[in-house]
């Protein structure tokens, strides 16, 4: 029989898949599709970041640097050197993973504020390099990125395609790709969490000293999850570059890093589906608050502040706990 954790994982994944299947019914125009595609790509990125922050307890304030490296590696490889998209994404992920391993080994020895400052510095350094290397990256002006090619298809948001005899638009094709990638990202993360590696990560988060005493190589597992989260960011950065068709150093900016970490905290650290909800909320809020014009930023900050005051564990864990509590009370009352 499937154990309780596996049943929970499958149930969550099936619910997410069902939402992604039904969602196109409510998407009325290409702008809606583009917004949801961005949500899916960024949600997959923060699923990887949540492994580092939510399960291993290691903060990263420069994660957009790896996102930017993946975006620029893919853009340069496909645009300048004529690579296909899949090899560019794979080689880019390997390159970023190696960089993350080299950088992570020394900085993950730090703790608390020192670790935050170190990861912040890594992000700044990457952003500065992307901004200054005009001959390679185009500098502040950015660079164009070719359309994503998949098994002979060139996925352009302006194209038309036939899938199993059904005519679909370019944004619909991108929606399908982004949905599949998000599901794979969640599936991998959920399986990693319940593996021996995931249990080791949770022990590191609980107490590094205690984990070391029982034989967990804390340095090894912290470096490993740092690399995995960086690879997530790299692959999603590459897909983001292809989808946008043009990138600037802003994809590696401090603002992007803060956006990623805020999504994790808002959705619920240690909750895979919670961070997806956090990504959706933070991408939707600016659209909802657009009518407030100059008060948009104030309203945005106020909503986030009130959410963290009254839901300190994050949106999804708080909602789940509240619903479970009410169901138990109802069941107790009926008994």
Automatic annotation (TrEMBL):
Subcellular localization: Cell inner membrane
Membrane topology of the entry: Multi-pass membrane protein
Name the UniProt record assigns to this protein: Branched-chain amino acid ABC transporter permease
Entry GO MF terms: branched-chain amino acid transmembrane transporter activity
Membrane-traversing stretches: 12-29, 35-57, 64-83, 89-107, 114-130, 173-193, 224-243, 258-285, 297-316
Matches recorded under Pfam families: BPD_transp_2
Key words of the record: Cell membrane, Membrane, Transmembrane, Transmembrane helix
Family matches, as InterPro entries: ABC_transp_permease, LivM-like
């Amino acid at each position: 029989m499937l154990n309780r954790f596996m049943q929970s994982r499958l149930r969550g994944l099936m619910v997410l898949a069902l939402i992604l299947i039904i969602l196109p019914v409510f998407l009325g125009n290409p702008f809606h599709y583009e917004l949801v595609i961005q949500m899916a790509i960024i949600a997959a990125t923060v699923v990887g970041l949540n492994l580092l922050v939510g399960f291993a307890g290691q903060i990263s304030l420069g994660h957009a640097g790896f996102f930017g490296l993946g975006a620029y590696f893919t853009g340069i490889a496909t645009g300048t050197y004529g690579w296909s998209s899949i090899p560019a994404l794979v080689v880019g992920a390997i390159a970023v993973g190696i960089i993350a391993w080299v950088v992570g080994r020394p900085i993950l020895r730090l703790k608390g504020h020192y670790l935050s400052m170190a990861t912040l510095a890594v992000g700044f350094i990457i952003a500065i390099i992307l901004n200054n290397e005009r001959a390679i990256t185009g500098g502040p002006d950015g660079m164009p990125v070719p359309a994503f090619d998949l098994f002979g298809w060139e996925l352009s948001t302006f194209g038309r395609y036939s899938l199993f005899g059904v005519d679909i638009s370019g944004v619909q094709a991108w929606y399908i790709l982004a949905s599949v990638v998000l599901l794979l990202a969640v599936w991998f993360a959920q399986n990693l969490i319940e593996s021996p590696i995931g249990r080791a990560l949770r022990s590191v988060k609980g107490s590094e000293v205690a984990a070391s005493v029982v034989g967990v190589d804390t340095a090894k597992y912290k470096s490993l999850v740092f690399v995995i989260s960086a690879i997530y960011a790299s692959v999603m950065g590459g897909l983001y570059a292809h989808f946008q068709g043009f990138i600037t150093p802003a994809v590696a900016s401090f603002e992007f890093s803060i956006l990623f970490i805020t999504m994790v905290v808002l959705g619920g650290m240690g909750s895979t589906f919670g961070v997806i909800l956090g990504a959706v909320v933070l991408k939707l809020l600016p659209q909802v608050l657009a009518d407030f014009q100059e008060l948009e930023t104030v309203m945005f900050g106020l909503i986030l502040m009130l959410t963290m005051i009254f839901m300190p564990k994050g949106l999804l864990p708080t909602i789940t706990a509240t619903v479970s509590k009410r169901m138990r009370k109802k069941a107790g009352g009926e008994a």
